[in-house]
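Team,

Forwarding the record for the chain on the shared tracking sheet. I've put the sequence and predicted structure together so nobody has to dig through attachments.
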Amino acid sequence: QVHLVESGGGLVQPGGSLRLSCTASAGSLFSINAMGWYRQAPGKQRELVATMTRSGSTNYADSVKGRFTISRDNAKNTVFLQMNSLKPEDTAVYYCAAEQSLGTSWGQGTQVTVSS
């Protein structure tokens, strides 16, 4: 399993921005097929936000396209989620995930709250 640590969550006003970071244990990227961000709001099912494969291909949920960007720094074993034009409906706990052939690893989650 891969150890993942998220950071960067917080409280922001609508229209604001946040940048989430997810750092994997050293050397893990050699065995990771894809990484992604998921979120879960109170009373709702966990949903996909954005993913990136080893080749750099990305995909996004329709609700965040044009506002969120997933990126990576391979040297630091880190994946980022830049969130712009935040809306109240983006409020959720955001989880980093790493997919390997043997299964999926999850971070501890970081709270994002968008409120005026």
